[in-house]
């Protein structure tokens, strides 16, 4: 929900454009119905997205103009923005032009409050979303963004996120961009994604014959004769060119109007382009020169910039400006001057010889640099004018790249790479520029390109930034899922005597992270112990890395309390702010992993929430997807499959958006497990097949234990226990792997025991039980291990008392149900069974069935019903009476909680924080809630909630 279906929009109708404000609008009747429907829906609280494509001059901008005027008449807050070929290097320029400078705050390296590189894209997205939510709280909002084929990557990312997360608010988006040769693959991809989410798309084609006649009638005020329509044909059915041609000839007396008809005088057929050129040629020379300089500054430009470029005061420009405006070439838009159309702008700039245009760009760039402030506006001009070795231009590009490195690393990468192309090979500054480009490419996830550039730079010669580039290369290798290469590179760096202290700390951190990823604890343990023994000689980054590795060692050894102690000490140091920015959220996520493993789920949720805040604030984009993926595992442990699936999907989307595709693999493994539990084996197989085709995760935070086990679960569900055993053979054969697996995935102990027994491998079953009992003995403070051991032992020895203990004491619902099911099976198949034993078996199976059904484990529930039938007991498929298909009573407990918070006026982000979910998951729940209640707005939800509930609403 949140996007309107076409039939609903067409039923809305009305709100036709006034007079001839959109000449030929009758030829766009279907498109206008979509627009009017979206506007009407937004007035009652519904949001929507309309995507507009078409070639230049076909009427996209005019459509947005008329929609904005109609929205304003309806009381909308209208915010309008556009992209420009000369603002492509300015992050978020289209949204900034719509929301104003308050719509963004671009941090620079000089603003960094923490050491190390950081990417502020996440923080900027949060800021934009909060601003739009605040606007929509006071009434409907229309956002129009034009010429998005010229937008920067940050804008496209923002639109993907904002339209999705604000779908339940009264914000209407109209997004326009060219189709054909001027389109970009990135814009095509964005529009495809938005359409998949429910956005409506219109393609503005050339006007048909009837619409052409209507346009000419609107302009001339009379019905055109065939000769006039033949003249109109030279405009190629392009609305802008057609209107331009008709108005020009009308002003020259080229038509005779009589008896309601219009005929051409004289009967000649000029080309439409001649009309545009003729318009320019009729202007005075000073006005033509003014427009040419204006064209270099952009389609839209501040008048003060034009005056400064011409060396004139604004007052002295007035006569020329008035002439240009009267001629219909430019118009005033707020404080700026803008060409009325791309075609006019392109016609003006096309009159400039390339050498002159390049010289004017150079002057414009130097003017903006001298002014001070941001160097990004100057960068676009410098790129178009600078020659190889142009020192001043290169310094300007350097400044701009450093300025946007944290807010838009994609832009920084483009700027730095262009600067490299313009740098002479022998220039000492080449290496520094290469280092900036490598940092930017790394932040955007373009890891192969970053690694290639780093190696190229290192292969040139010995230069000062070499350690920095080698350190960056080690980090890239780690992110690329190549921890062995990263480890080798970092160790080579640490062997150097000329390593700066800050880089040494980073290299030591990479070493420990690599060892954790490789699970090379034999090598890592003594190294970590040595660092802690002489911590005064090591950086805090190295100490934190050592503590994290020892925390992992403790978990593998089964000493959970020791692992917690190491993590708490690492957090104390990391929170001091003297370590690499990635270490703080990384450490917090590891803490959440420990908490989940011992079923301290609320503590796990809290650690994840703090980690997410740190990831956004510190700009650790590489970890952006992890909070959702970690939450998914916590929700699985709690038996909340809908939330777990939503969080996994959110994590995958973020990974795709942020360029960390390796983590998509983790989300797919979670979705595959949920699909098995729900009985959808086809979906589970699809997820696993896609999982196997994805590049490997960088090894951070999630080890292979969970993913390998899920592969085996899917294989076993396909009635192939032998393949499942093959997948898990290394785990059965290695005590260290067993401990790690049983701690991080507690439910595997019973599952692994059952699989070993099913494949007649009694030694493996005994090994799993022994490991589970060992973990129980050395972790008496964590009751989950007693339940896990009892379940595995009960299966091995067919011990009803142990299984009953597990069923009663396991804190996780699915695992408790599984123990109850196993108890029922043992009781039902005992050779000395009595009628009382049979009843106990039925009672235990009923308990398992009830729990499986409550959490949505439909495959397991079906299996238990089959077991009950074998005992002569038939149980119907579970249908919860209080959960019909639609209406208030159809909402789940989670959905009601979300509805209560949203109806109380909380934003998605505020509700997410209250419920320990991601904002994306709240959006997912809202779509389901709206569908069940047959509504599409928060206002309607608040009304229904008020009718259904009497408890007070929470307030933000």
TrEMBL record:
Species the sequence originates in: Sphaerisporangium aureirubrum
InterPro entries, A to Z: AAA_16, P-loop_NTPase, Sig_transdc_resp-reg_C-effctor, TPR-like_helical_dom_sf, Tscrpt_reg_LuxR_C, WH-like_DNA-bd_sf
SMART domains in the cross-refs: HTH_LUXR (SM00421)
Record key words, sorted: ATP-binding, Nucleotide-binding
Alphabetical list of PANTHER family matching this protein: TESTICULAR SOLUBLE ADENYLYL CYCLASE, TRANSCRIPTIONAL ACTIVATOR DOMAIN
Protein name, per record: AAA family ATPase
Domain HTH luxR-type: residue ranges: 884-949
